[in-house]
Amino acid sequence: MTKEVLEIYVDGSVAGKNGGAGGRFIYTDSNGIEVLHEFSTDGYFNPTSTKMEVLACLHALIELQKINIPKLIRRITIFTDAKYVADNYKEAMFHWIGHAWKMKSGKSAPDREEWRRLIKQILRYKKEFNIFVEILWKKGHSQNLHNNAAHLLAKKAALSPLPCAPKRKIVSRKNTW
Question: For the whole model, what pTM was predicted?
Answer without folding.
Answer: 0.87
